[in-house]
Design goal:
This protein has three helices and 20 strands. The protein is mainly β. The chain has a single domain, classed as Porin. A hairpin with a 2-residue loop joins strand 10 and strand 11. The longest helix is centred in the first third of the chain and has 17 residues. The chain is globular.
Length: 422
């Protein structure tokens, strides 16, 4: 269902400044929003930005449930048309050197065919960007999100809302003009509505510490250690027993931000990673993980972003719980004029699975792999400064793995969205 939400919400790329991506928790969010609103009321409004927005969207997906190829062709079984309404507001409030920001967004989604999937989506975020003295700064934030879970690996026509609660805090100390120490703590919680997918509920906690060299040119190079702990409160039922998917992951990585030219920025983040499943001596994965991002802006109107990655990640599947994911993507943004912008995305990804159970360990590794391709194109038009219209289309295709319990499917869709900012 992620493609539906992405199509509907992406219209606001022109209408509002993007909220911070870093994870955060609902309790911290409430504190941040209360403090932000209180400061907004108690001080002149000229010092803050409060921007409500609304939007409507319509779309069609010819395989909403991501059914296997042989099933989706039966009387267009997976096709559906949807419509949605979005409303909310963004807040930005500086207080001295401190900066508070937040967003409250609500989405009402309706489906013509699978009306049992109708739901209210929520997206709440808040962050405090703090500064202390001349050499200390960091962030504290919180978020809460409720959305329809993806149908990519579970093709049931039942509403399955995924709730994500996050919290984070980070800080850096620039103890020398060319050096800084930094550290962060992140906690992410995931919960699912359907009892049949409860085994995917999990909490992930990570603690990171690192050091960076800051060149006078603006480029940076650093090194960091991170420990990630994943805990699943419910076991996964396989055969006559239950399998625990708890894991610990250790990382030692280098991070580089290189300003190659005035138009080119290169980001690299990679190194050694070891992932261990608790209580399973045969489930130790280790190797090189890395992500490379190249931002190229050949002109003021064109921006190109290319990425490549090789990373261990959690998988919410029926027979698999983790994978070594390799992939690449490209995005092109072209401002034809001040009012018209075009965006194109291409993505290819391959997942090499680690099974949840020893039942399929003996299978050839080639059978525990799937690959997917996705492409999208969109055009945004701003007839007025506060009004945005967007039309977009996408196509997805995946070659599944029967041994890993993932299916092959194709999906094509399009959407039309209109948003107004006040």
């Amino acid at each position: 269902m992620q493609s539906v939400i992405t199509n509907l919400e992406s219209v606001f790329i022109f209408a509002r400044r993007r909220s911070p991506d870093a994870p955060a928790s609902i309790s911290l969010l409430r504190v941040g929003l209360v403090a932000l609103i209180g400061s907004l009321i108690s001080t002149p409004a000229l010092c803050a930005t409060l921007q409500p927005f609304v939007g409507v969207g319509f779309g069609h997906d010819d395989n909403l449930l991501r059914l296997p190829d042989d099933q989706s062709r039966l009387v267009n079984r997976g096709a559906d048309t949807y419509r949605g309404v979005i409303g909310g507001l963004t807040l930005d409030r500086p207080i001295g050197r401190q900066l508070f920001s937040g967003i409250a967004e609500f989405t009402s989604m309706k489906f013509d065919r699978y009306s049992q999937l109708d739901y209210i989506g929520k997206n709440l975020k808040g962050e405090w960007h703090w500064f202390l003295a001349a050499h200390f700064e960091g962030h504290i934030g919180g978020s809460y999100a409720q959305e329809l879970a993806s149908f990519a690996d579970f093709h049931v026509d039942q509403r399955n809302l995924r709730v994500t609660r996050n919290q984070y805090a980070d800080g850096s100390w620039r103890f020398h003009p060319s050096w800084q120490l930094r550290s962060s703590y992140i906690k992410c919680e995931y919960a699912y509505d359907l009892p049949s997918q409860r085994y995917n509920d999990r909490t992930e906690k990570s603690l990171m510490t690192g050091i960076d060299y800051l060149a006078s040119s603006g480029s940076t190079i650093g090194f960091q250690f991170r420990r990630l702990e994943g805990r699943y409160p419910y076991g996964q039922s396989l055969g006559t027993g239950f399998v625990g998917n708890d894991f610990n992951q250790e990382e030692a990585k280098v991070n580089i931000m290189w300003l190659a030219t005035g138009h080119t920025q290169v980001l690299f983040f990679g190194g050694w990673v070891q992932r261990k499943q608790i209580g399973r001596a045969d489930r130790i994965d280790s190797g090189t993980n890395a992500r490379l991002i190249v931002n190229w802006t050949p002109s003021g109107r064109v921006k190109l972003v290319g990425q490549g990655w090789r990373e261990f990640s959690a998988i919410e599947g029926a027979l698999v719980d983790s994978a070594l994911t390799t992939g690449s993507s490209a995005e092109a943004t072209w401002d034809f004029s001040e009012k018209i912008q075009g965006v194109t995305n291409l993505k290819h990804e391959t997942r090499n699975f680690t099974p949840s159970s020893g039942l399929v360990v003996s299978l050839p590794s080639g059978l525990l792999r799937d690959s997917s391709n996705a492409a999208s194109v969109g055009l945004a038009y701003k007839p007025l400064r506060s009004l945005t219209l967007k039309i977009s289309a996408f196509r997805e295709q995946r070659s599944g793995s029967a041994a890993a319990g993932t299916t092959s499917y194709k999906a094509t869709g399009a959407s039309l969205n209109v948003s107004q900012q006040f």
